[in-house]
Design goal:
By secondary structure, the protein is mainly alpha-helical. It has 3 helices and no strands. It is elongated, with a radius of gyration of 22 Å. The N and C termini lie far apart (64 Å).
């Protein structure tokens, strides 16, 4: 039992050290970049919702309208910052 507890303690210590090393190695990110990251994630969620809308069988026009509403003030253009060929 003592050996098991020692092993668990060692694993926990190594895991904590790994987390500390990752935190120390993390780059400094400016506020501007943090805002861009947030916008990209929001746009990705909006595009995922548009894909699910199309998968559900709704009309493309309705899904585009929903995408535009989700991206209002977030991205440039009516395609939420992304356009592709059809």
């Amino acid at each position: 039992m003592k050996a098991v507890l020692t092993s668990v303690a060692l694993v926990c210590t190594l895991a904590a050290a790994g987390v500390s090393a990752q935190t120390a190695a993390a780059p400094k990110i400016s506020e501007h970049v943090k805002e861009d990251i947030t916008r990209h994630r929001a746009m990705a969620l909006a595009h995922e919702a548009a894909a699910r809308c199309l998968e559900s069988g709704k009309a493309e026009e309705q899904c585009l309208k929903d995408l535009q509403a989700a991206c209002k003030g977030l991205a440039i253009g009516k395609y939420c910052g992304m356009k592709h060929e059809h």
